[in-house]
Specification:
The chain is α+β, with helices and mostly antiparallel strands. 19% of the residues lie in helices and 28% in strands. It is found in: Secreted, Extracellular space.
Length: 285
């Protein structure tokens, strides 16, 4: 009987590992974030560019996403990584919990970069270690992938302002939402083009049942997914960034994970559903 219990336990752990490994959130920093930080930093040093990386999207003017905050992350290991965030108020921002702890790598400080197309220079830069992850964040299942960042007071201007949190029961299915970020523009991207700037992409929200066909153990009621057909998607480095209803200044999702096959594979992209976490986030503002 003891042997049976041990075998069942081992199978459960193995299944959880396989469930987590299909996503890009588990061990995010060592698999994606650190490499993106090195690539972006080298490219910024080599080129005079305006910088960012959504797959299949279009360049956006700096003021198009004034709530978008880049995150330069100092890991406890000594490496640097990158993510995105959304500014909610003069002193608060929201990101993905896996940007702070991905199940293996612990961050020790965020530098929030606002009003800038570059990640490693320019804009308003605020360093903080005041980050609160959702208490039920689970890196293996990627459930409750939300964290609130506290900043020193930031002034608003044409390039820096907050975004409102979605509330209520709207599931936004079949609506078009806009993702923005500083991540890679393709799975194979190495450098950054001379005219590269912040990018944005419009993506259609799909049902959670459709999303579960790809991620049967990682999609919950608190997840919101988009289709990524036509080579359009979020990609490495976009984690924690916004999914918003275009022209409404309404945040409906926080970039959580894609598929390990890559951001151009046509698999759904998943986000933390803001309506599910509205009360928890507001309780920390």
């Amino acid at each position: 009987m003891k042997t049976l219990v041990v075998l069942v336990g081992l199978l459960a752990v193995t299944y959880a590992e396989l469930s987590a490994e299909i996503t890009t959130a588990y061990h995010y920093h060592e698999n994606i974030g650190i490499h993106e930080a090195i690539r972006i930093k080298q490219a910024e040093a080599a080129l005079d560019f305006d910088g960012s990386r959504i797959v299949g999207g279009v360049p956006s003017n700096l003021g198009d996403n004034p709530h978008l905050g880049g995150l330069v992350i100092a890991l406890a290991s000594g490496w640097s990584s990158v993510c995105g965030s959304s500014l909610l108020s003069h002193t608060k921002a929201v990101t993905a919990a896996h940007c702070w702890f991905d199940g293996s790598n612990q961050a020790r400080q965020f530098t929030v970069v606002l009003g800038s197309a570059r990640l490693f220079s320019g804009g308003v830069r605020v360093s903080t270690s005041n980050v609160v992850m959702h208490p039920e964040w689970n890196p293996r299942t990627v459930r409750n992938d939300v964290a609130v960042i506290t900043l020193n007071y930031v002034n608003y201007n044409n390039y820096i302002s907050n975004i409102a949190l979605a509330s209520g029961s709207n599931d936004y299915v079949n609506q078009w939402a806009e993702a923005a970020g500083y991540g890679a523009t393709s799975d194979s991207q190495q450098g950054i083009s001379q005219n590269a700037i912040q990018s944005k992409v419009s993506l259609r929200v799909i049902t959670n049942n459709e999303c579960r066909r790809t991620y049967p153990r990682n999609v919950f009621d608190s997840t919101i997914c988009v289709e990524t057909s036509g080579g359009r998607s979020t990609c490495g480095g976009d984690s924690g960034g916004p999914l918003a209803i275009a022209n409404s200044n309404l945040l409906i999702g926080i970039t959580s994970f894609g598929h390990r096959d890559g951001c151009q594979a046509g698999r759904p992209a998943a986000f933390a559903r803001v309506t599910s976490f509205n009360s928890w986030i507001r309780g920390r503002m």
